[in-house]
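Q: A reviewer asked whether we had any structural model of the full assembly, not just the individual parts. We don't, so I'm hoping you can provide one. Inputs are below.
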Amino acid sequence: MIIHAKEPVLEVHDLTVSYSRKPVLWGIDFTLPSGCIAGVVGPNGAGKSTLLKTIMGLIPPSSGYVKLFGHPLEEVRHRVSYVPQRESVDWDFPVSVLDVVLMGRYGKMGLLRNPDRQDKAMAMDCLDKMGMSAFAKRQISQLSGGQQQRVFLARALAQEADIYFMDEPFAGVDAATEQAIITLLRDMAAANKTIIVVHHDLQSARDYFDWIILLNMRLVAGGPTGEVFTDEMIQQAYGGRLNLLAQVGDMMEKRAFPTREP
Amino acid sequence: MQNLIDFFSFSDPNVRYVVLGTILLSSSAAMVGAFILLQKKALVGDAVAHSVLPGICAAFLFSGSKNIVLMLAGAFVSGWLSLVAIDYITAKSKIKKDAAIGLVLAVFFGVGMVMMTFIQQTGNAAQSGLDHFIFGKAAALVGDDLLIFSILAAVILITVGLFFKAFTLVAFDKNYAQALGYPVRRLDLLLTSLTVLAVVTGITAVGVVLMAAMLITPAAAARYWTNRIRHMVGIAVAFGAFAGLAGAYISYVAPSMPTGPWMVVVSTAIAFFSFFFAPKKGIFPRMYTQYKNQWIIAEENTLKIFYHLGERNSHFNGMRGLNELTSTREMERATLKATLRRLATKELLVTRNNQWGLTDKGYQQAARVVRLHRMWELYLTKYMDIPADHVHDDAETIEHILTPELERELEHQLDYPDKDPHNTKIPK
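A: Here is a predicted structure for the entire assembly that you could use as a starting point for your response.
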């Protein structure tokens, strides 16, 4: 069940993604309107993070394409921001909180220029928005899980992008941080930014998101929350009726079959 | 002593050359090494170092002489090939990266040793000294050779300096770097090339076997002293430079000593020292902190004994003997005595004929600890729904940790209570 956006800022077209020949996402097809908070929801192993990574160009798709603001990612990279999963980095790395947030400015700076006073002021501003300015000089290993997530979001804010992809920003954070994040997201959406969030709590998904992408290796549903986030659709995504799809994927890996005919 | 003066006057031009050469090569290796370490690729450095040997031998076989430029080129190529081989094996086979590294290292070094033995048996007069490439000989760093090595080291230092920001980003969060549009693949390639270059720069003075140590050890030691990457790289460079200088000096004093192993010994000594003594992260400072905590706990527990005894008859300033003190709380007599003495020097206790009593200051401290204990018990029962008979042990620990700020917060949340869950009075 797909409901397409009228003037999409993100268009994912027939996207198939494989890990060593084993397809993990099959023919994903959806669009998103501008200024929405979209939740990518589905069971474990549904390919939610993979979808985000493919959109960000970190994993090459086997087929299909992604367009942002009507262009390929390469042409609009400065308008796109990515928040990786918190656990994907080594938090014992010898940098301070401010250093991490400054990384958000690196894209604008280019390869060789160093951050100047303006960049620092901007980074401090973003830390302030996340209520973390008192921690600017702290080494990152001294932060709690919720604080780490706030630092990652501050770094994304520092990019001043128009579309944000966030991988599990609510995972393992305290209630206060969760509230702070959702408030931030709503402010951003009100400023016509588009936000795509990987999420796996069905309860809060209905409150948090105004657009839902329901995923389980294939697209189960995509559209406004009120219309597509129905019990029937959830049942389809979570009620293991896709065994065959996984089995075929396993077989393609074992027999070294190509995903698409050459 | 005369040696030391001769060496550090740098009046001998050879000494000047050698010192300059070793310092440059070891500091540039340390700088690259810092990023290899942060990217968790320390083993790769080892593999490259061993894998340059066949390149050196091949260059010699090709030219029939020890032409340094050709040999460096040969070393660079075979170092590079080893890395390509590791990546290829990891990507295309079931063999995991650590096994691939071990495999490539052994094969390349083995081939190198076979070639070297072959060269030595050909009776070619020019081959004498070729074996210095295995363990290094700083005395070989003279004339034009030195110039070449210095240029290479300078190239490394400048390149790493230029790409400092980018290397840091890639080492910390590769996915994010790629999402920002950074050329992650090319930056990886650049760091790999710099690693090979750093190894190549070091082979005359340190030798192929031990060059990996000069890459990794200074950086690993530096990590103990700071939490800032810029400082860490600076400290690593300083450690590397010092190890280079020390190695050069030792092989000057004792000419039969190889330079490379001595440089490695010195930098290992620095690493060990950091490991044990670096403030905060070293083993001994950490042990000292724990030891001090034990003291604080013993002191506060002793003060509490006085308070509890005082509570029985509302006479807090009474003088108590050892037997009376141990009757309320089990404590080893030796520990108790030592603690009493410490408390007396801090003027928290007064002592008269083997009896002790609280001073005013001591009473306040004792009351504070008891107060924290009882407030924490109250907090646990009130907010965490833990039954009153389960909260004592927890409070025993927490009472020693709570800071004045947390104490105020606790007071506020409990609305300035009078009684703990056991209905005992909470002292003000």
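A: Points you may want to mention in the reply: Chain A is about 35% helix and 25% strand. The interface with chain B takes residues 53, 56-58, 74, 77-78, 80-82, 84, 88-90, 93-96, 99-100, 103, 106-107, 109, 111-112, 114-115, 139, 141, 155, 159 of chain A (CB under 8 Å).
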